[in-house]
Amino acid sequence: MQIQPQPNTANGPLGETLRPVLGARALNRALLARQLLLQRADMPVEDALAHLVGMQAQSPNPPYFGLWTRLRGFRHEDLSRLLLDRRAVRIALMRSTIHLVTARDSLILRPLMQSVYERGLSGSYGRRLTGLDLEAVAAAGRILVEKQPLTLGELGKLLREQWPDREPAALANAVRALVPLVQVPPRGIWGDGGQAAHTSAEAWLGQSLASAPSLEETILRYLAAFGPATVKDMQVWSGLTRLRETIDRLRPSLTVYRSEDGSELFDVPGAPLPAPDTPAPPRFLGEFDNMLLSYADRTRILADEYRPLVFTENGIIRSTILIDGFVRGIWRIVRQRRTATLVIEPFEPLSGEDCEALAEEGRGLLDFAAADADVRDIQFVSPEPRSQL
């Protein structure tokens, strides 16, 4: 069943047109549907990456978990092959963080996010780069990484040979901000390792960045994958500012709702909006999943009281479990010799039915993540009393 609220044309105070109100559960079910989490999708991996507008990927393995929980029959090699064939890349984009995206999207999104890079560079390294010809640094850095992929540490040391009075990290990050750097395999390949080595997107893909990428189209894609959403949500997801002007241009073509606190929620017409009571199966999300990072108000999926249990002080966003569509705990896989144990830590006591369904899903996760283990086990950790959290 799907609800399609119709705009209420009755006028409120001061002649304002009233909009349908969407509560947290309605927003939750819309998010789950658009994130392919109400049921696994039969979709090629490349198409899924495009639909999701990429996946946050500071660590190599979380995108594999994210795709396993969203796509029916997903295999490690399905993603690894895309990276090896250069049809997908790891590149810093939204919020200036590493994302796994299609090759096409890297060329479109990277120029759109340029202001995010520049703002971050100024905030972190501005004083250490004062008086420096940044274009010259970028040009020198491009030559170096296109000659041979380099880690940022290696790049900084080589650049310091030309600018000996400057800090290597500042020089390397100036290049990162001004040159579109992709991380090359084996980084990001399941079961492989190595530090993140970079070259330019143009050299790796043999194509130029998009000359006139559409911010409006990107916002519409965000709404299709994450909406309905506020302007603040869009800004949190992207790292961009002043998006109100863009939304005002798009407004005539958008559906507009209101949240329970009265904020405007924008959406693309015809996007899935399931009924709030639509059943939601248990799901395992990997670290840094974009569902937890793409909103100013995260209560559509994560209760405020649980946020400190998921977002750590050192910047890690833990792997989480979804029960009835909402974050209700965290998980990890512990390897000891030939044994793999899935450790599930609920934040609150779970019903027997929820534990059984979660364990069934967890067995599939272990088969996917630890197929080489002789013994695969699941351990539930009893939640601590709420007064101790």
Structural features, described:
- This protein is of the alpha+beta class and 389 residues long.
- The protein has helices at 24-34, 45-51, 62-68, 76-84, 103-112, 114-125, 134-147, 152-160, 168-178, 201-205, 215-226, 231-238, 244-250, 307-310, 352-369, and strands spanning 21-22, 55-56, 88-92, 98-102, 181-183, 198-200, 255-259, 264-267, 283-285, 320-323, 326-336, 339-346, 375-380.
- The two termini are 38 Å apart.
- Mean pLDDT is 93; it is low at 3-16.
Uncertain runs are 3-16
Order of helices and strands: EHHEHHEEHHHHHEEHHHHEEEHEEEHE
Q: Helical amount among residues, as a percent range? A: 25-40%
Largest sheet: 5 strands, antiparallel
> What is the general shape?
globular
Q: By helix and strand content, what is the structural category?
A: alpha+beta
Mean pLDDT: 93
What's the N-to-C terminus distance? 38 Å
Rg is 22 Å
Count of β-strands: 13
Q: How many individual helices?
A: 15
Beta-strand share of residues? 15-25%
Oligomer status: single chain
Taking strands numbered 1, 2, ... along the chain, how are they ordered across the largest sheet? 2-4-3-5-6
Write the layout of secondary structure elements.
Elements: E1 21-22, H1 24-34, H2 45-51, E2 55-56, H3 62-68, H4 76-84, E3 88-92, E4 98-102, H5 103-112, H6 114-125, H7 134-147, H8 152-160, H9 168-178, E5 181-183, E6 198-200, H10 201-205, H11 215-226, H12 231-238, H13 244-250, E7 255-259, E8 264-267, E9 283-285, H14 307-310, E10 320-323, E11 326-336, E12 339-346, H15 352-369, E13 375-380
Parallel strand pairs: 1-7, 12-13
Antiparallel strand pairs: 2-4, 3-4, 3-5, 5-6, 7-8, 9-10, 10-11, 11-12
Helix pairs in contact: 6-9, 7-9, 8-9
